[in-house]
Every structure is written in structure tokens, then in C-alpha cells.
Amino acid sequence: MRDIPLSRAAPLAAALLALALAPLLAGAFHLRFLAEILLLGTAVMSLDLLVGLGGLVTLGHAALFGTAAYAAAIAALHLGGNLFLVLGAGTGAALLMAALMGVAIMRSSHLFLLILTLLLGQVAWEVAFHWREVTGGADGLRGLPPLSLGPWRLDGPRALFLLSGGLALAAYLLARSFADAPIGRALVGAREQPLRMSALGYSIPRIRFRAMLAAGGIAGAAGSLYPFLNLYVGPQSVHWSLSATMIIMLVIGGVGSLWGAFLGSAIYLALQTYVSAYTDRWQLFVGLVFVLIVLLLPRGLAGGLTGGLAGSLAGVLSRRGRP
């Protein structure tokens, strides 16, 4: 059995420990806050599959996340809050949106890719904002029924946190499997050497399409649970500004690290929640953190932490090896 590298095993062990201890130590507000970090972090991690592996920077990722949120909310309002029904409706809607977006961007790259995904995301926002009979328009959808699994209600802070944590863990393992699989390697190859990959017989549009489906499915699963944190979903969940926010979170956490997405979302949401309690200029602090990360830690917080941990371990081992 292949050994798990330290850079992957340590974050996974820390995540499992945090998931086990948080329900015992945190209050109701903090559990919901942590659940929001986990769900947004999962969506950002799915974006990392496109950006970190494929170099496909998109401003339409919120359309996948928000479409799933709307689909899950609509299904819950009409059919009830059954967990599997909600996850199925949201993830299915996100996969459909990802397929449409994937067809549009299969042969696009760089600036054209950015503009196309921005336009597609704005189409989703227009639908959410103006189709009032279905989406609630600018008011969004409120009064959602709580999530349930058979006779059990899953609307408490502890239940929502555990659901979000379980989803985030499963999504991480799925994303890691995708990155390590031949399709993930091919996606990296398509980013680095597209002409050589084409000459070897690989279909780059097909590789990008599959990556978009994988990212859409993971983002959709996270978006399906997101409305049930506050029993509300609105047009801002599909707006391009949320896509830009996800990119900021990804850069802060570390592009290409997968688990760094959760660090980035935690830093951003902590600044938004706690700094905004003292000043309306909390985004200035986000910008400062962003600039410092880009200048001092080009690989993000995850890269800095992994590099520091690996360097410390190497130093300890080298000292032990000396006579």
C-alpha cells in the first residue's frame, strides 16, 4: 500500500481531529460559522481543480454553486427537506449547468475563458433575479423546511456542522482521487504542454469538459446544503462577485493544494465576520492580507505551512543522522 505523503496526511489528520472536537467545544453560532467555512471551502476546492490543475481561471463558478442552492431550495419547498432529495436535486442541477458551461469553454482559454464564464454566470444571475415566480427574484427564497433524514431533523447547529464536515471530507477525498487519477494528470499536461498532449492523441476539450463536470458536481453538493444554514437563498449566491471572492479565497489558501481552499475561506470569512463588527472597511483588511500572501507566500498559506513543516522535519532528520 502506498504511503501517504506528510503534506497530505497532516492536514487530513488535523481535519479529522477538528471535526471530532468542534461539536464538543464550540457554541451554536460558531458551529454554524464553521459549517459555512466548510461549505464555501468545498466550493473553492472544486474551483482549485480547474485553476490549480488545469489553469482554467473562471468567473462563473458561483453559477454552479448558486444553481445548486436554488435547485435544492426549490425541491425542499415543494417536496420536503429530505437530505438525499436535496443533495440529488442540487448536485444534478449543478452538473447540468457545468455541462452547459463545459461545452462553451472546451476550446477557450485565458481571457476568452474568463469572459465566457463571466457572461454565463451573469445569465444565471439574470434568471435568478428576474424569474420571480420560481426564484423569488431579489427577495430570494425564504422559509425553507429543515433538512431531515427519515424521522430525524437535521436543523440544529451540531447536525449542520457534522453534515458539512462529512461532505467536505468526502469532497476532499474525491478531489484528491481526481487529481491523482490519469484524468488529473492529463489536465495538468494540457495546462503545461497542450501541443504535445494533442500530438500524443489526448483530446484537450474532452479533458476540460470532464474537469468542469467534476468541479460542478463537488460545488453543487456544497451548494445544496448552503441554503439550510440560514434557511434562505438569494441572487447573490450566483453573482460573479462571489466567483471573484472564491478566487481570492483560493489564492490566500494556496492554488493547487486542495486543502488550502478551507484555509482561504476561513481567513476571508473570519475577516468579514469579525472585522466588520468594528469597521465597514473590512475589505481593506482582506486586500492587505491578499497582497501580503501574494508577495510573501506565492504558494499561499497551505504552501507556506507545508514547506515550513517539511523543512523542519528534514532539519530534525538531518540532525539525527549526524554522528
UniProtKB/TrEMBL annotation:
TM stretches of this protein: 85-104, 156-175, 207-226, 246-270, 282-302
Keywords: Cell membrane, Membrane, Transmembrane, Transmembrane helix
InterPro entries named among the record's database cross-references: ABC_transp_permease, LivM-like
Subcellular location field: Cell membrane
Topology of this chain in the membrane: Multi-pass membrane protein
Molecular function per GO: branched-chain amino acid transmembrane transporter activity
A cellular component annotation (GO) from this entry: plasma membrane
Matching Pfam families: BPD_transp_2 (PF02653)
Protein name per its UniProtKB record: Inner-membrane translocator
Organism: Teichococcus rhizosphaerae
